[in-house]
Amino acid sequence: MLTVKNLNKIYGTGEISVHALRDVNFTIIEGEYVSIIGPSGSGKSTLMNILGCLDQSSSGEYILDQQSTQSLTGKELATVRNKKIGFVFQSYNLLPKLSALKNVELSMIYSGVPNEERKKRAKEALIKVGLEDRMNHKPPELSGGQKQRVAIARAIVNNPSIILADEPTGNLDSVSTGEILKLFDSLNEEGKTIILVTHETDVADKTKRMLSFSDGYLIKDEVMNR
Amino acid sequence: MNFLEAFYISLDSIWSNKMRSILTMLGLIIGISSVVTIISLGNATQNTIETELSSLGVNSITVYLNRDVTIKPSDKLIHSDIDMIEENFSDAVMYATPSISKGGVILSDVSETNVNFTAATENTFDSENLNMIEGRFLNDFDSIGYKKNIVIDSDLATELFGSGLATGNKILISTGATSQSYFVVGVYEMKESLGGFSTATVYLPYTTMDAMFNMQGILDSLKITFKSSVEDPNLEIKYIINSIERKHSNIGEEVYSTFSAEDLIDTVSQTLGLVTLFIGAIAAISLVVGGIGVMNIMLVSVTERTREIGIRKALGAQYTDIMLQFLIEAVTIAILGGIIGSIFGAIFTSVGGNLMKIDSVVSGDALVMAVVFSTSIGIFFGLYPANKAAKLDPIVALRHE
User: Fold this and answer.
1) What pTM, to 2 d.p., does this model score?
2) Which of A101, B17, B157, B191 has its CA 20 to 30 A from that of A185?
3) Which residues contact A40 (CB under 8 A, 6 or more apart)?
4) What is the per-residue pLDDT across B85-131, written as a single tens digit (0 to 9) for each?
5) B395 contacts in A (CB within 8 Å)?
6) CA distance B290 to chain A (A)
């Protein structure tokens, strides 16, 4: 469902160029729960941007759902992001002036889902993450764990192929971290493909497969025994 | 994303930054309200002046001696010209009236009043648009009989006879060496004059006046009133002038000039129109300044909301979605400013109209122009910030603090 072949990413040109990813190869199949781990500067954020179709590689191939993303235009990439990718960010990235419900509706606005259905699906997603009584609260009125759950609801509402979580527990206390990871577990059990980028091994330990990066190389690809 | 969604998002954003939105609109409100006020009041003034001038008689043309050429005694307009015109051009001409005006004094027990003596025929009543408030106007019998009858205006009547009736009284008029007694047969209504103060005009039978000043039939000028069926008096007058010239044997010497109220209206309208346009154009500069204000705030807004733009892009917003969102926001601010400005413009117009004592109506043109203008300003000055927002790289935008 997702294949990366000889992926390279070079920022800048000539002497000052930075080789962020070097000949990365891996495949993730539907329903996997994968962590991408590595220290800062290991290239994991770059990989995350490319997997999330926010950026394109310098060379190599990234195939998502049998579709090569290498030659897509900005407009087509936006459509891929909208339909196939659900983002969860470390800093939540919710729009502070919109209610939880409105925030969850956002991606559906851009995919042209009619108003009624949009509301219905947003409510369902919020119920799924356990926020049925916080739907009309705005982000500043929510705790960190609740904000991240809104973000997860937003990520799953458009039924994407993969959920890309970038340090989703980085700003959370241990209790909230546990809750969020449990939520990812249950989503994975439902069959959702989840890629979780982190630098914390405790978090990576909760996933089923770990891709370790260092200096732009994929150095280890191990299946976790849980 | 459809247009309506973009509109809601824009309204949300304008609403959540109320103070800033209002301040941004202020420039446009001031600009639009002043343009609307100036154009509306300009049009109203023009209408008022046109109406007042039309009361002078749109359908009449005055023939007078050209002051730029040397006049021979034989060139002078005389009373028989009037008979000639009324006879030969009876199809087009309703009547022609002589115009002779001389200064003189009315003597009373206690005072002397300067007046203009003006020669009149029966038709002068219509051609000068007079209204009698007492008695009657002069008629043909007065002329034929060289009667010493006089018609005075209401102000003079009050001055001479207080609140009582003027008609039936005798007054003494003096024309230098001699003074004679005249009989007041009527009082006409004094019109509000454009110029404000002016010397009172009193009417005498033209024959009486001719004799009094020993004019021997010579006129200052003559006024021709055309039938309403005549479409172009200016064309007709050419034939009339031609036949006057033939009568005086001075064809082609350009001894006679003409003047019509229509000429005056045209000149005044044109001048006023230009002045209005000029002041309006100056006011329109404030619109441009207002537009720059819109652009400024939109640029601030784009910078402030860089992260929001990043989030929206990550969630699948395309170039056109972001473009539309910010453009609609700019246009909405501009149009709201335009509407509020128009309302203020309407208020200023009616207040100004009251102060200037003219019938002021908010000009529809000005309102349409206000809306079209503010929309164009929103689009023109919103395009650059909106493009800047839509072009943002999502990764950079998401990292923005």
Assistant:
1) 0.72
2) A101
3) A199
4) 888 888 888 888 888 888 888 887 777 888 888 999 888 888 887 88
5) 49, 54-55
6) 28
